[in-house]
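does this look right to u?? zinc ion version
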Amino acid sequence: MTDVSYELTRCAVCSSASSEELLSADDARIEIEQLWEFHQKRLRADIPPDHLMDRVAFSQRTPLRLVRCDDCGLVYRNPMERASEVAEIYENEGPDEPVLRALHDTQRSAYDAQAARLTEIFGRRGTGVEVGSYVGAFLAAARAAGWQFAGVDVNAQTNAFTRALGFQVDDGSIESLDPARRVDVVAIWNCLDQLADPASAVRAARAHLASGGMLAVRVPNGACYAAFRPLLQSPLAGIAREWLAQNNLLGFPYRYGFTPTALERLLVRNGMRVEQVVGDVLVPIADRWTKRWAALEERLVKRVIAAGARIARGDKPLAPWFELYARVE
Ligand SMILES: [Zn+2]
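got this back:
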């Protein structure tokens, strides 16, 4: 983790080099401190360090600097960690089995709702590949909902856990799957934003879709971060901090903050048509290590934010996360 190498980059959606700074290195440090403070108040003091994963300890490093593309609105790191750094992060790390089990159980109910939404929007059940299947929570939800989903993930250790639950999972990326393989749906939940080359992943996903197939994506909303981030120094700081922290946007532990508009642009270029955009909140993260008042607070706050996420139009700046469903033309 010491020798991180960075490179200057352009917008991954529209190749524009024109952007404005959203977050400086100093801002990033302050946001991370605020994030720690936020969770320290809410977590039990005896929480084992490995349960901090995805809460205050993330796979992605804190950004050096974040910008927003002037042309399409994509939020991205610039400079950005080199692609080789990203591969290393995800291939190497892996918590122990009890932690993976806990993550699986915590994520499962949210994915039940997501599988139901996918069935409704796609119009029927079918076959699918989930990119970044991680601990298999969506694969389990999809199976229970009558889908035949398989996974693909770069982390062999996590994949072994997921295979032990009875799922087919390939080690690797969507780019490395058998080119002849066709499915009805490619789902990329909470993952496109962390890839080294999301445009390449979208291209590969399109190539695996059968006629009438659908790409389903869930990502953190760059438009929400761009709207709330400037409020952190305003009289509305408390609300902005809660809005971002409850949805894992504080400190922006992602490489890309897609907006509905920017993502649509990428998908249209790959021969897909957007059918639906759904604004949402982060999946529940409270577990046995969360203080009781904090778990209650999370439920209440997320209910309020979810209501805001649903009414927002266009780039849905009130929605911390969004799902986008696009069909092959
Ligand atoms: Zn752009």
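Residues 97-122 form the longest helix (26 residues). idk if thats expected tbh
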